[in-house]
């Protein structure tokens, strides 16, 4: 099994993952690709809680996608918008964990978060190895200039 570092370019359109390495894929196909191709480096995380240990193998795809999207958001959104986005994410999660899915606050937070991501488009190249996954310095800038690369 080849465990050499992998580089994958994740392409996003309006904050939705649309391609990997230039190949258009559905989100499901992208998760399968990342789990198989990048997952062959045998990442396993053990999450220790007070009552049990959870072994997470399929989490690599989600972690890579979410981290790449977060880096693209940081390159695309203003700092005040990012601050507000974090507050909304916390409110949204708080409502959900409290069992208030569909509450007015949850719906409003969800709509505001979705609208903040409409113009978040571009690409992030990730360097993935058996010890880490990191965005590479060279990536596709959402605005097409070299300011963030």
Number of helices: 4
Considering DSSP H and I runs of 4 or more, what fraction of the residues is helical?
A: 40-55%
pLDDT averaged residue by residue: 77
Any idea what the shape is? globular
Proportion of residues in β-strands: 15-25%
Helix-strand category:
alpha+beta
Low-confidence stretches: 41-47, 137-141, 145-149
> H/E series, N to C?
EEEHEEHHHEE
- Strand order in the sheet with the most strands: 3-2-1-6-7
State the distance separating the first and last CA atoms. Answer: 33 Å
| Radius of gyration (Å) | 17 Å
InterPro entries: AS_cat/multimer_dom_body
GO molecular function: argininosuccinate synthase activity
Entry summary:
The chain has 149 residues and is an alpha+beta fold.
List keywords for this structure.
149 residues; alpha+beta; 2 domains; 5-stranded antiparallel β-sheet; two-stranded antiparallel ribbon; 4 helices; 7 strands; 42% helix
Describe this structure in words.
This protein has 4 helices and 7 strands; from the N terminus they run βββαββαααββ. With 149 residues, the protein is α+β, with helices and mostly antiparallel strands. It folds into 2 domains: 93 residues, no CATH class; 42 residues. A 5-stranded antiparallel sheet has the order 3-2-1-6-7, covered by helices on one side. Helix 1 packs across helix 2 and helix 3 runs antiparallel to helix 4. The longest helix is centred in the middle third of the chain and has 19 residues. The C terminus is likely disordered. One of its GO terms (molecular function) is argininosuccinate synthase activity. InterPro entries: AS_cat/multimer_dom_body.
């Amino acid at each position: 099994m080849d465990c050499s570092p992998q580089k994958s370019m994740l392409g996003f359109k309006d904050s939705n993952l649309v391609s990997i390495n230039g190949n258009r894929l559905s989100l499901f196909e992208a998760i399968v690709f990342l789990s198989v191709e990048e997952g062959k480096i045998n990442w396993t995380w053990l999450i220790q809680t007070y009552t049990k240990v959870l072994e997470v193998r399929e989490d690599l795809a989600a972690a890579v996608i979410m981290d790449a999207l977060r880096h693209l958001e940081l390159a695309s959104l203003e700092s005040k918008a990012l601050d507000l986005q974090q507050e909304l994410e916390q409110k949204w999660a708080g409502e959900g964990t409290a069992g208030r899915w569909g509450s007015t606050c949850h719906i409003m937070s969800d709509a505001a978060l979705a609208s903040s991501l409409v113009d978040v488009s571009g690409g992030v190249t990730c360097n993935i190895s058996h010890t880490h996954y990191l965005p590479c310095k060279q990536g596709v800038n959402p605005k097409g200039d070299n300011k963030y690369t």
